[in-house]
Specification:
Number of strands: 9
Shape: elongated
Distance between the termini: 112 Å
Radius of gyration: 40 Å
Strand content: 5-15%
């Protein structure tokens, strides 16, 4: 069959479709025209006056109007929600998040936390706290852990510290004499301590013997750090601080590594978080010390992870320690301490740093990030119960986190230090540019004027 024949057949097959299409269009046009003529004719007959009423076609029934029902509170609320969908979503998100946080906090506070006991009901879990008994956090943690069912040993190095521990008059809080300066004595003490844990003991006559197990070692370096311009920090001050906070901590950790590995216990290191996170001026020693301890903790965590020994870092904010420490000591005026620091500086150093030092101390104390948390600052710290619950959970949960943020401002200032530019942080803390004398002969006058300004601020 040729192409002309095929084309002719295609034309013939399309004729029925065209006929159907045009027929439907014609029918629709006729229907529309008929309806229009009918409506016009009906309207003309209804309006004609010469036709009797009985002959006229009946009018269409009037449309029924349903009266609007007044809306109640629910109806108005639904209408408002439809008009403000974005605002409604934000309110629901805020309320949902707040409700979840409140529920979670109540659940954490309401849960009972008690240490495991032996089959005969005696205490069997031991916690070692390596921190100064003079520190409020050390004393508070030892009392709380003993109350929750642990046997607590506090590391001491002097007779005075041992007496402080015994003055608590608690049956299960004991001093552990450890001279980290003498490696031989330290090794003998740790061996004796391990033997003491593994020795069978009887809770009462004719009871089933049980042994103790090491639950964890808590390291609490001294939280008091010197502050001031680097120009005023002597090498001996740096050496003393590094020895007492870094070297003592690493040496104590090294001494307890073998018991930690033997009992698969946990190592907790408690360090301040706010100053190291912000790294503000005049706090070089604290920032450098905590950074070194963090690096040490990360390395130790990687070394002990294959042996299933968790190394946990606690980032501490501010706490209200008024219930456990001497209230007079804890609430001493930071203004007086600031003034005493500035008076010890040379006159040239005062002219350069005193104004910003006072401004930062005042702003930091008001915001609770410097000299805050029960130490006379403007922002009240978190209750120590948060620290107690966090330490207990870190010692007992199956899979503890590597880093715990506890205390007022710990997590917030950590985020601020990572994401907010340093210039904005300094401006928030009151750091401003300082004009210095242009000539040596004018230095005395400039210093006296600046010092008068500082005295008025203090």
């Amino acid at each position: 069959m040729s192409s002309d024949d095929q084309y002719f057949l295609d034309m013939l097959s399309s004729i029925p479709n065209d006929v159907k299409k045009y027929s439907l269009e014609l029918a629709d046009a006729i229907e529309r025209q008929t309806n229009s003529v009918s409506a016009a004719l009906r309207e003309s007959l209804q309006s004609a006056t010469w036709i009797p009423q009985s002959v006229k076609p009946p009018r269409p029934p009037p449309r029924r109007v349903v009266p609007a029902i007044p809306q109640g509170y629910i109806g108005h609320a639904q209408e408002w929600v439809l008009r403000h969908q974005a605002l409604t979503a934000a309110i629901l998100a805020f309320l949902g998040t707040g409700g979840f946080l409140v529920y979670r906090k109540r659940k954490l506070y309401g849960r009972k936390r008690r240490a495991k006991r032996a089959s005969n009901g005696a205490r069997k879990e031991v916690v070692v706290i390596a921190g100064s008994p003079n520190e409020p956090i050390t004393r508070s943690l030892s009392l709380d852990l003993e109350r929750r069912g642990f046997v607590v040993y506090v590391v001491v190095s002097t007779v005075e510290e041992e007496q402080l521990v015994r003055n608590e008059s608690r049956v299960d809080i004991h001093p552990l004499n450890l001279d980290i300066v003498d490696p031989t004595s330290t090794e003998q003490t740790i061996n004796h301590f391990t033997t003491h844990l593994l020795s069978p003991r009887h809770a009462f006559p004719n009871s089933t013997p049980h042994t103790l197990t090491l639950a964890g070692v808590i390291l609490i370096p001294d939280t008091t750090y010197p502050s001031g311009p680097i120009e005023t920090l002597s090498p001996s001050l740096w050496s003393d601080t590094l020895n007492t906070k870094i070297l003592a901590t690493t040496t104590t950790t090294r001494a307890f590594l073998r018991p930690l590995l033997s009992f698969h216990a946990r190592l907790l290191l408690l360090t301040p978080s706010i100053i190291p996170s912000l790294a503000p001026p005049f706090h070089a020693i604290e920032a450098a010390t905590v950074a070194a301890l963090d690096a040490f903790t990360s390395t130790l965590r990687a070394e002990l992870a294959p042996a299933n020994v968790p190394v946990i870092s606690f980032k501490l904010g501010t706490f209200d320690c008024g219930a456990v420490g001497g209230r007079t000591h804890l609430q001493s005026s930071p203004e007086h301490a600031t003034r005493a620091d500035i008076l010890s500086w040379p006159s040239s150093v005062r002219a350069t740093y005193a104004k910003n030092y006072v401004a930062q101390s005042s702003a930091g104390s008001t915001r609770g990030c410097i000299n805050g948390g029960g130490n006379g600052g403007g922002v009240k710290g978190s209750p120590l119960r948060e620290l107690h619950n966090g330490v207990f959970d870190a010692l007992t949960v199956k899979r503890p986190k590597n880093v715990w943020h506890v205390g007022n401002g710990s997590l917030v200032y950590d985020v601020v230090g990572k994401w907010v530019p340093a210039g904005i942080v300094g401006w928030m803390l009151g750091i401003r540019s300082v004009g210095l004398g242009r000539e040596e002969g004018e230095e005395g006058g400039e210093v006296s004027v600046e010092w008068e300004k500082v005295e008025r601020m203090v």
